[in-house]
Each structure stands twice: as C-alpha cells, then as structure tokens.
Amino acid sequence: MQTHTFKPDLPPPALSVGVVGWLRANLFSSWFNTLLTLFAAYLVWLIIPPLIQWALIDADWTGTTRADCTSGGACWVFVQQRFGQFMYGFYPTELRWRVDLTLWLAVIGAAPLFIPQMPRKAIYGLVFLVVYPLLAYWLLHGGFFGLTTVSTSRWGGLMLTLVIAAVGIAGALPLGIVLALGRRSDMPAIRVICVTFIEFWRGVPLITVLFMSSVMLPLFLPEGLSFDKLVRALIGVILFQSAYIAEVVRGGLQAIPKGQYEAAAAMGLGYWRMMGLVILPQALKLVIPGIVNTFIALFKDTSLVIIIGLFDLLNSIKQATTDPAWLGMATEGYVFAALIFWIFCFGMSRYSQHLERKLDTGHKR
Amino acid sequence: MPEAIKQTSAEPMILMEGVHKWYGQFHVLKDINLSVQQGERIVLCGPSGSGKSTAIRCLNRLEEHQQGRIIIDGTELTHDLKHIEAVRREVGMVFQHFNLFPHLTVLQNCTLAPMWVRKMPKREAEEVAMHYLERVRIPEQAHKYPGQLSGGQQQRVAIARALCMKPKIMLFDEPTSALDPEMVKEVLDTMVGLAEDGMTMLCVTHEMGFARTVANRVIFLDKGEIVEQNEPNAFFTNPQNERTKLFLSQIIH
Amino acid sequence: MQTTANAPRPGGSVWTDPKARAWLFQIIAVIAVVALGWFLFDNTQTNLEKRGITSGFSFLNNSAGFGIAQHLIDYDESNSYGRVFVVGLLNTLLVSVIGIVLATLLGFLLGVARLSPNWLISKLATVYIEIFRNIPPLLQIFFWYFAVMLSLPGPRQSMGVGETFFLNSRGLYMPAPSPADNFGLFAGAVIVAIIGVVLLSRWSKSRFEATGKLFPVSMGSIPLLIGLPGLAILLGGNPLQWSVPELSGFNFRGGWVLIPELMALTLALTIYTAAFIAENVRSGIMAVSHGQTEAARSLGMPAGKTLRLVIIPQALRVIIPPLTSQYLNLAKNSSLAAGIGYPDMVSLFAGTVLNQTGQAIEVIAITMSVYLAISISISMLMNWYNKRIALIER
Predict the structure, then answer these.
(1) Which chains touch A (3 or more CB pairs under 8 A)?
(2) Where in this chain does the record put each ABC transporter domain (chain B) (predicted)?
C-alpha cells in the first residue's frame, strides 16, 4: 500500500494575481473592455475634478453677507448663515433647545431597540412608542405644564421634515397592518373595503392627496371643527402611506407557511390571538426591510408639502434662495439640501440592506 | 466489466498536460496529466472540494486554466474565442441541475443550438431532436415545458439536448446527484446506452455501480491532484493508495 | 382560510356561531362605512352652501380667462375650463411618455453597466444609482429648473448651434416643420417602406426556419427606409417647410420652443426613474441562474445569441412587473410639475381652475379619477401580461 505524498501548494502565476492580475481581469481584459475603461476614466476626469474645485477648493466658507463670496466657487457662507432656518424653520431661537431635546430623547430612547441582546424588546418598544409621542408633542408644541406655545405654523426646516416622516410612519404602520389583515380576510365585505381603500391611495399621486386633505378636509368636517395645516397634511400622508405599508405587510403574511396558521388554530387560538402572537411577529420580522424602504420613500415624499405651503427643509431652502440678499445661491442651496436628504436616505437604505442580511440567515428554509 | 483500452499511439481525444488552476491564491488543480482515447469511458471520483468538477469544466472552458495545455480533438484551448467555440461544438455537457431553458419546450430546447449554431433548417433540427428524444425514451414529452417534467425526465432531456449537437465527447458533472433515488436508475440506464454506442465519456459521479458497469478507467482525485487511476476491477478490489482505500471505505457501505 | 378555531360549535347563538358572527361583523362594517360617507357628505353640503359655492359640473363650460404656456392643441383665454382640462391632460401625457421612453433607455443601459465585468464602468453605474435614488424627485426638479434652466442666458445671449437651435432661459428653440407640397408622396413612401421592413423580417424568419440561413434584416431594412423616401424627395421636391426661430426684439419668433419647465421636469424624472429601472434590470438579469448561461455556452452558442435567446427572455419576465410599477410612479411623479409651474393636469386643473372656481370636490375628484384610471389600466395590462408569459409548470 502506497501513501501518496501531496504536492505543495504553489503560488499562482504573477500575471494573474496581485494588482497587475486584477487590472488585467477587470479593466483591460479585452480591447473592448480597454476602450470602456478609457471612456469611463474620461467621464470621471470630466466630472470629479471640477466638482471638487467648485465645492471645496474655491469655495467660500466664512463670512456674513453675500459680498463675502468673492471667489468663483461655492458660497457656503449662504448655508452657514441660514443654517438655523434650514434646521428649525421659524421656531423661536431661544426655545430651540426644546427641539434639540426632543431629538436627543428620540435617539437615546430608541437606542436600546438596536442592541441585539436587549431583553423584553417588544414591551419596551411599545411603551416607548406610546410615551415618546406625547412627550415630543409637549416639548415641541408646548402650551401646558409650563412650556410656552409654539404654533405649528412656526415649525419648519429639517425639524418639520422629521416630524412629518416620524408621525407619518407611526400612524401608517398600525393602519397598514390592519388593512393588510383585512385584505386577506375571509369576509368579503371587509376584503372589498380594504382592497378599494388600498388601491385608491396607491393609484393617485401624493400631491393630489395633499391637495385633497388641505382643501377638502375643511369641507368634510362640521362647522367649527378645524385642523391646522400641519395636521391636515399629516392625515393625508398617513392615509397615503398606510396603503403602501399594507402591501408590504401583505407580502410578509403571504410568505408565512400555511402550517403556521394551522398550528396556531389547532392550539385553539382565536383570530386575533393567532395574528398577534404567532403570525404578525414572524411576518413583520420578514418585511422589516420593506418597511424601512417605505419609510425612505416617505422621507423623500415629505418634500411635497411645499405645495400646500408648509416650510419643510426643501421649502425653507427654496425660500432662502429667493431672498434678495442672497441672489444666485440656488445651486448651493439645492446641493446642500440634496446632501442632507442623501445622507439620511442612503444611511437608511444601507441599514435596511444590513438588516436584510442579518434576518436572512435566521430564516433559512 | 469492460477492460481498459490500450493507450495506442493514435491522437488522444482529450489531452491535459501539466494543467494547474488557481482561484485567487487557492491552488485548486495541481499538475493534472490526463490522456483520453476515443471511445473511452472515464469516471472521476473523489471527496468534495477535490477539484473533479473544476477539472472537467476546464475541458469546455467553463473554467480557465492558468498553466499547462488542454488539447481537445487536436484543438488547443486558449483565449482564442474561435477555438473555444469550436471545442464547445464538439463537447457536450450534462449538469447536476439540468439547466434546461424553462421558457422553451423540450423540443425547442433540443433544436435551439443546432438551428442557431450548426445552421440546420428547422425541420431537420426537429427530426434530429425527435430521434434523440426517442433514444432517451421520452418522445411524447416533446411539446411540454421543462417545469412540467420530473427530475429524471428533465435530466434525460438535458442528455438529448447535448446529443443533438452530435458531439464527439460527453461530459457529465454529477448528473444524478440532484435526483430523487427512484429516478437515478433511468438516467444511469440512458448513460449506459450511450456508452454502449461508443461515445467518449467523462463522468464525475458518486455512483460506483455505474463505474463498475461501464467505465474503462476510474480516476481518483484528491486536493486537486490525481492520486490513483486504474481499470475499475483493480481500482475497487485492490486500491494502491491509503487515501483511495479510505475514500472507498467511506462511500461503499 | 377555514381554521379549526372557527368551526361551528353546537347550539350556536349569534355570539358563538362564527359564521353568524362574521355576517354581523360585516354588516356593522358596511353600515359604519356608509354612515361615515353620509356624515361627510352631509357636512360638505352644509359647508358648500354656507360658502356659496355651487355644485355640479356645469363650470366646465365656463370660459377660463387665462393663458397657458404650452398647449398641444389650440387654446386661448376664451376657451372653457373643460378645454383647460384636456390641455393639462395632454401635457401630463406628453411628459410621461417622453420620460418613460428616456428613462427606460437610460435605465437599461445603467442596469447592464452595473453588471459589467469592467470594474470602473460598474462602479460608476453604482455611484449614479446610489446618488439619484436617494434624492427626492422634487428636489431634483428644483435643481434642474432653478439652478440650471433659469440660470441660462437671456434670449439675446442664447447659446446656439448654427442659426437653427437656440438655448436660453426661455427655452430651447428649434425649427418647426410644416407640410409642404410633396408631403403626401413622402408620407406614402415612408409607410410603404415600413410595411416593406415588416414583410422582409417575416420572410427572413421563414427562410431561416426552412434553410438555416440567416438574412441580416437590419442591414436590409436600411436601404428600404432611406431609399424609398429619398426617392420621393428626388421626384417631388421638398416635403417639409421649416420655420426657423429668429431673434426679433427681446424674443424669438417662429419655430418650436421646448419650455424650460418641460425640460427640467423631463430631465429630473428621467434621471430619477432611470436609477430605479436600472436596479430592476439588474435584479432581473441576476435572477436568471448562471447555469443557463453555462448550458447555452457549452452547447456552442456564442455570447450574443445566448443573451438574446436564453437570458433576456427569462430576465424580462422578472423585469417587467416592477418596470411597469416604475412607469406608474413616473406618471404620478409628473404631478410634481405643480412645483415649477409646468402646465400639467394637476397644476392647471387642480391648481388654477380650482382656485378660480372654488369647486374643490369636483375638480379633485376628476383629477384623481384620471390617475386612478391610468393606474388601473396599467395594473390590468400587467396582470394579463403576467398570465400570458408565466413559465408553465406542473
């Protein structure tokens, strides 16, 4: 009986690995590829250096007025001067600490939900979701328990954008779950009502919804009962987004194997207990990435409230660019706005992809 | 049990000389030297990760080797696309997961390549296809879609599809590993029929019964190298190497 | 689904028999919805009376009294509100169709680029997608309109190509064709050429099936498409008259103008939607398992034919449903025109007309119905298409 001696591992030929190998494989593997690489490099050369030149090298960073923008580059003085308005809208300067506090409370309060090892997360989450909105409303709006009133017409900027997005998703999520359950119901009347509701809101643009809620809502309500503009917008946004959430949750409900429903029923659980204890926890976990994506879309959609005259981040910047003291700052303003939105949306989409990867391994079939 | 075919001085059908392959830094094929005559049936076996699939996939350039030479029926496999496509026309391959085209019927699966590569007229291609579908004993499924067939039927269609190009060599990459046990036999029977018609075959498989029945040579690969090769009788009853003996004891129980 | 929890129990009264409970629940729900509807309706009636706003659709016949910057059909201030609606609808469709076509082209290009083995190209495509997907479309529209279009020089300092195309802050001016004497013959020649191309491809397909020989249809069509109309021009003279824009005073006269609102809206919508389409295309192509490519290549099929006959048909099945959803989004996003004053349906009808007549209910109802009609027809088309091309399985 022979024993076979295995040959040693050799390193691969020099031209096929390392930097040279990578270049050959990825950029220059054929003449067509080489042409593409040159074309792409040309595009990069056309765009990146002028951009960096304008935005960073030639830009003006310090100063107080338009006259301080002497170079040909970006005038970030404009952004720096108006920063307060972009962040807080018309919120009184001396009371801005209340807005900051609200934000910090949100971050600190929500932080435990992101720690994987935290026990009893669901209960903590529910409590937080009930207590925090009340606290936030008190801090931002005031009017009782010692804080002065700041009416919603003075809310604006990034703060207003975040309020609309947060309230929007907080309202749309429970409503969407109920609609999704209703759409899958055995009872035909419920199903028809839910399907009609969902397809209606999904078929119309958000702008018409905002028009509707801002113009028609006062007509729908009895004399004397009126909502302020922000509340009308929030109602429209919540109804609109709930339809999209409903479709996302429906996908999750469909993905739960029939055996789960049967096992829960076999244990004697009624409909609501079955949904609440067995099905929904699994379904919602499955569609968290989809819900985050809906939230990203909602965050982008908040910019539409400009149409009904609310001063979110985009509108604040648009207003500022029409200020006679700061003419011609449109590019700087919109680039800044784009940067803020991009940071939020890209960050959230990265987080959603991370979640998808994490949850995927846990759901191996 | 068939005997080993004497290595004559005639041009081998397949010649691998000093073939090395790396995935990045990982040395997956080490100095493979193999010569296959026309009409030979070779079975490659070995533990998973030994490189046996990689080795046969190098023969139709689904994998690229970085060092050494591979010559198929006189054509050397290089970066030259013309050579590669010429080789692929003469080498048929059957995959573990069938890889039938789901949007085409069984008949269209079989006539696609003859019509578009060998430029056969449609009627002639369909005649050839029906001939091979009869060979694999499922002519009645010609107008069904792959999704409507069982695994064993799909694999037989895959064999017919490869045969429609009238290749000189057939490669099988674990053709029965993805099948339910009761369907393995129908596919193996088809392959035995092919062997009896004189097709040159290289087969990566765990089905040792098939090896005993049909193979002229069994080659055992481990860690990217050929450890032992012999005609089946000698291979199974009298392995020359510790590694081979260990492997055989693990798979034959 | 019928669950054992809902199996009827013996001696069921209304409260314990699930079927009866279900009926009761549904009746209550329907009553609640109807009651809510009635409540809202009643309030609306009262409020409308109080404000002296009339109801009904007769306002559509009233004269509008305002001009519109872009109208694809004839329009002036004396036309009715009904005509304003049609003008707005056509403008919405115009920007939607152009946007869909351009976004599809750009999106497919980017999707394929993202999958390219060339690292630089694929990274550039990825950067594009990640940037433009995450910036709100309204913001992109504002950027193109306020920061780009309106910053263009005035008419007197237009950027021009030759003396025929002019780009300035009022828009893109180009020559406008109108039919001349020979137009009839020319149009006839074009139609004949198109029919000829269709017949040619049919013939070449049957020839391929009969003999296996491929006829290059695209090469053969070009002489037809160029030659026949060219012959018509040679024989009969010029088929088209061109009205070239000319600077007179402070503005241009003659020719066509693409207003900056349309250009900004189209650019922004195209760039934004293309990023999403690119992702759909990429996931469609990636959904086709690599084994399909391997099988086709190992049969000797060259790369181009593999792509066309094996990969793309399967990829399209996965691409088209979300693609139509993106088309729908683009059509809905065209309503953002209201932000920059492009005269689309929302900004004309639900904007100006609503303000002038005060008949909010009717106007918004009409506007929403149009969008709903578009959504529903696209959904139905999608369902039909899906059923038709579904892979046939056991």
Answers:
(1) B, C
(2) 14-248
Work out whether strand B200-204 and strand B169-173 pair parallel, antiparallel, or are unpaired: parallel
CA distance C9 to C6: 8
Rounded CA-CA distance C214/C205 in Å is 8
Residues A274, C26: C-beta atoms closer than 8 Å: no
Q: How far apart are CA A273 and CA A175, in angstroms?
A: 18
DSSP at A132? H
> How far does the CA of residue B88 sit from the closest CA of chain C (Å)?
5
Tracing tokens 């409503």 back to the chain, one arrives at A175
Residue B202: pLDDT band with limits 50, 70, 90: very high
More confident: A296 or A282: A296
Of residues C289, C301, C313, nearest to B103 (C-beta): C313
For C11-40, the pLDDT digits (tens) are 555 567 778 888 888 888 889 999 988 888
Query: Chains with 3 or more CB pairs closer than 8 angstroms to B?
Result: A, C
Q: How far apart are CA A64 and CA A98, in angstroms?
A: 27
Q: Which residues in chain C are contacts of A33 at CB distance < 8 A?
A: 117-118
User: Count of A–B CB contacts within 8 Å?
Assistant: 41
Scanning the structure block, which residue is given the tokens 């702008």? A207
C31 interface with A at CB cutoff 8 Å? no
Q: Which residue of A has its CA nearest to C370?
A: A204
CB contact under 8 A, B30 and A1: no
Residue pLDDT, tens place only, C374-389? 888 888 888 888 788 7
DSSP B22: E
Residues of B contacting chain C (CB within 8 angstroms): 60, 62, 85, 88-89, 91-93, 95, 97, 99-103, 112-113, 115-125, 145, 147-148, 158, 161-162, 165
Q: How many Å lie between the alpha carbon of B102 and the closest alpha carbon of chain A? A: 24
The answer to whether C46 touches C53, Cβ cutoff 8 Å, is no
* Exposed e or buried b per residue across C247-262, where buried means at least 16 C-beta atoms within 10 angstroms of its C-beta: beeeebeebebebbbb
Q: Which residues of B touch C313 (CB under 8 A)?
A: 103
| Span B128-168, pLDDT tens digits | 999 999 999 999 999 999 999 999 999 999 999 999 999 99
Question: Is residue A264 within 8 Å of A279, Cβ to Cβ?
Answer: yes
Residue contact B119–C213, C-beta within 8 A: yes
